[in-house]
Design a protein that fits this description.
3 domains; CheY-like_superfamily; alpha/beta; Heat Shock Protein 90; single chain; Rossmann fold; Sig_transdc_resp-reg_receiver; five-stranded parallel β-sheet; phosphoprotein; five-stranded mixed β-sheet
């Protein structure tokens, strides 16, 4: 059986108090009547209530002042307040809502609808309380998940690093002994450990990105080193996929101020994505060129099946795999492309994908020109113009000629 709801009724009109109290008692409510706002506020602080119904124009303390006082109270500030007005001025209702009123009724009262109006306000208040409780629970769960993710990352990284490190030592020993079978087993251990470590790192980065901007460990590194780091991390998948890789890098010695680990990781994920969603023997182009704006565009292009236009919008959303069931045909958390975007945004850059069905896909990671540093050789050379200007870099020209240049 539901508990009896308590209503405080404040009105300086004795007849109005009597009629309204009778209707509320008839509907099953417990009623405390008050002749002004001050008395109603005292009853609320002493006994509490589920609803306050107050006339606006009263002596001692008006309905406006009562509503404002209730909203300032730490304990009862959330109590719904229904105001009653006989004023024909529209600003009276606006002023009441500005003070914090929940709803209002106009005099003369429609007594047949009075009970339903009270019932509606109480039900709406209960719904808001339930929503706030659900929100608070969800926020607490999110904070717990983020904390757990950080602990898991630390607790899993340590044993995984040991598994990977000793697995490599064992694999090298089997290689020296020409024991190819057991070396293959050891390689599987190392590969599995790396994949699990990458998954843990991806989840932690995604959690950090959801909580706010990720922290960058910035240093100057050359473009060639970034690309080499990325390719080293996917050598085995490229080999197993029999992928044909072509490099079209504008300047390997171009220095970039960035987080080396994160940018290399972003390029590696784009390469891994191209391998994962393309057929065996896929042709992959790794390109880099300076845009007309002076930014650096790093491109990963494949000749795979491509994507429909409607699918491109969802690619950077977390867990965007079309099939996230355990029976899905391709492994992965669906975090690869969203994390590339997070890394690009953290560096002040951008990320986009261009694709059409049957025409492959082109992923472009852009780093702003403010992060670029001229190569040492370029710094020593004076700027040349007119006929003395050097010819365009052949790799940059090739990117533009094949339609892969970035405007």
């Amino acid at each position: 059986m539901d508990a009896v709801r308590t209503v405080i009724l404040a009105d300086d009109d004795a007849i109005m108090r009597e009629l309204a109290s009778a209707k509320l008692l008839e509907a099953g409510y417990r009623v405390h009547a008050a002749c002004d706002g001050a008395e109603a506020l005292t009853i609320l602080k002493n006994d509490g209530a589920d609803l306050v119904i107050s006339d606006l124009d009263m002596p001692v303390m008006s309905g406006f002042e009562l509503t404002e006082a209730i909203r300032r109270d730490e304990k009862f500030g959330d109590t719904p307040v229904m105001v009653i007005t006989a004023s024909d001025r529209g600003d009276a209702v606006d002023r009441a809502f500005a003070a914090g009123a929940t709803s209002f009724l106009a005099k003369p009262m429609n007594w047949s609808l009075f009970h339903h109006a009270v019932k509606f306000v109480l039900r709406a208040h209960d719904d808001r309380k339930a929503l706030r409780a659900a929100r608070d629970q969800a926020e607490a769960g999110a904070k717990f998940k983020d904390s757990l993710m950080g602990v898991m990352s630390h607790e899993l990284r340590t044993p995984l690093n040991a598994i990977i490190g000793f697995g490599q030592i064992i694999a090298d020993q089997f290689h020296k002994d020409n024991d190819n079978l057991h070396r293959e087993y050891a390689d599987y251990i190392v590969d599995g450990g790396r994949r699990l470590l990458n998954s843990v790192s991806d989840m932690l980065l995604a959690s950090d990105a959801r909580s706010g901007p990720i922290t960058l460990n910035e240093a100057e590194v050359t473009l060639g080193v970034l690309v080499d780091d990325a390719i080293t991390g996917v050598e085995k998948p490229l080999e197993l996929a029999e992928a044909m890789t072509t490099l079209k890098i504008c300047d390997r010695d171009l220095e970039i101020c960035c987080d080396r680990a994160l940018v290399s990781r972003a390029i590696r994920k784009l390469l891994d994505n191209a391998v994962k969603f393309c057929p065996r023997g896929v042709e992959i182009t790794i390109g880099a060129a300076i845009t007309k704006k002076g930014d650096l565009a790093i491109m990963i292009k494949d000749n795979g099946p491509g994507l429909k236009a409607e699918s491109l919008e969802d690619l950077t959303a977390p867990f965007a795999l079309l099939d996230m069931s355990m029976r899905r045909s391709r492994e992965g958390l669906g975090l690869g492309l969203p994390l590339v975007k997070v890394i690009a945004d953290a560096h002040g850059g951008s990320f986009r994908i261009d694709s059409r069905p049957g025409e492959g896909a082109r992923a472009i990671l852009v780093l702003p020109k403010t992060r670029l540093r001229p190569a040492p050789a370029a710094k020593a050379k004076p700027r040349q113009t007119g006929e003395d200007a050097p010819a365009e870099d052949p790799q940059t020209a090739l990117l533009k000629k094949t339609g892969n240049g970035i405007a």
